[in-house]
Design goal:
By secondary structure, the protein is of the alpha+beta class. The chain has 16 helices and 14 strands. The strands form 3 sheets. Strands 1, 2, 3, 4, 5, 10, 11, 12, 13 and 14 form a 10-stranded mixed β-sheet that branches. β3, α2 and β4 form a beta-alpha-beta unit.
Length: about 425
């Protein structure tokens, strides 16, 4: 059975706001609603005409658990439009797009709002296990004597907070933080600190140079005090190799090279796209930006999760008879400079391609002028649930007509995702 074409009609994202030591001004749902409202207002159909709303979110708040439904209702889609939520760590937004594609191809949906959102600045502080046990003992006391006896067992150490974000960024199988997995790639492929910092500076420089291009995909935010947020606020025009060289390693303080400066930023943001079937395009007179041609998910060693783009994008290239540089543009999410540079090194490494990808020879070196040409998450930020949708949207917007590109992302837990796009 021939699969239906999947058209990407339009999209929008919020400015990405860097976490600055406390809760940001917007919840994850707030972010998606403000971007989604502006996106839907420029469409020729009503929000209630959507088949469904699918949102990716890695860290929804307790009162926004099925955040896809919350967003659908707040956008005025009505009670009859289903809204639901997916979670695939860093690729949650891309998973939402893939889920929409599957439903369109099966005929269950025709017009879908999909994407991702996260407000990582609002990641919770948790009680330690010791504090929880103490609270349980106090609350479970049956009389005044037992309660005072339980209270006297309190220790100040119980108050030490557990960072929810840090736990979320630590792999429970291998016990490594995401930054430590980046250090593994740097060691495996001999990527030194100077290369990481130089790559990071380039990300900022490219984002600055493309400021006007990036602005076209942004939906400005307004908080409850009337303050507006119109641009990504983590991009640094003054970034330099000299400044980055002064930063200390974060994840391996003695031997490491991964710093806050050559890593993606902890960020709040949302990115959404509209996907449609051929029938929906005709019915509503839509003008698609392009088509999503293929998608692939891959698994690999969680300790080297940053190579996920290599494992996911390579099968797509093979299916379509393409080489790395046959594509006009690539978006590889910049979780860490070491991770992106590690992907490039893996494709050009004979042993890795043979042993891990089952290839007869390496694929070669991806032209850096085709990769993240308007900067990436090191400069823009990485709101985990939104990044997979952001790179799909940005790639589609910046591809030249008739050209193809690949959006790929590494995923905590040892996964990778990739999508092949064509601009119409």
């Amino acid at each position: 059975m021939a699969l239906q074409p999947i058209y990407l009609i339009d999209g929008a994202r919020t400015p990405f706001l860097k976490a600055r030591g406390g809760p940001g001004p917007f919840s994850a749902a707030d972010l998606a609603v403000q971007a989604g409202r502006q996106l839907l207002l420029r469409q020729p159909f009503a929000p209630g005409d959507l088949s469904e709303v699918i949102m990716g979110c890695a860290a929804p708040a307790p009162d926004e658990v099925n955040i896809g439904r919350v967003i659908a209702l707040r956008l005025g889609c009505g009670e009859k439009v289903p809204g639901w939520t997916v979670m695939r760590n860093c690729a949650s937004g891309m998973q939402a797009i893939d889920s929409a594609m599957a439903n369109i191809q099966s005929g269950r949906s025709e017009l879908v709002l999909a994407g991702g959102t996260d407000a990582l600045s609002r990641a919770p502080l948790l009680f330690s296990d010791a504090m929880v046990k103490w609270l349980v003992a106090v609350n479970g006391a049956r009389n005044t004597g037992e309660k005072f006896a339980a209270i006297r067992k309190f220790r100040l150490g119980y108050l030490a907070p557990v960072l929810g974000l840090l736990k979320g960024l630590t792999d429970p199988i291998v016990g490594l933080t995401m930054g430590q997995t980046a250090e593994n790639l740097a060691w495996r492929f001999g990527i030194d600190r100077a290369r990481m910092d130089a790559y990071s500076v380039r990300s900022h420089q490219r984002a600055i140079a493309a400021r006007d291009i990036i602005a076209e995909e942004l939906a400005a935010l307004v908080d409850t005090a009337g303050n507006t947020y119109e641009a990504d606020d983590g991009v640094r025009a003054d970034s330099s190799v000299e400044k980055l060289a002064r930063l200390k390693p974060v994840f391996d303080r003695r031997y490491g090279n991964v710093t806050a400066g050559n890593s993606s930023q902890v960020t709040d943001g949302a990115a959404l796209v509209l996907l449609a079937s051929e029938a929906a395009v005709q019915r509503h007179g839509l003008k698609p930006m392009g088509r999503i041609l293929d998608c692939e998910w891959a698994g690999l060693d969680p300790a080297r999760m940053g190579l996920g783009p290599v494992h996911a994008a390579t099968p797509i290239l093979q299916r379509h008879g393409l080489t790395l540089n046959d594509l006009d543009a690539w978006e590889i999410n910049e979780a860490f400079a070491a991770q992106v540079l590690g992907c490039l090194a893996a494709w050009n490494d004979d042993a890795y391609c043979r042993e891990q990808l089952g290839l007869d020879a390496p694929l070669g070196m991806l032209d850096p002028e085709r990769l993240n040409v308007q900067g990436g998450a090191i400069a823009l930020g990485h709101p985990v649930g939104a990044s997979g949708a952001r790179i799909v949207l940005h790639l589609m917007r910046t591809l030249k007509p008739g050209r193809k590109g690949m959006a790929a992302i590494c995923i905590g837990g040892g996964l990778g995702g990739a999508m092949l796009l064509e601009k119409l």
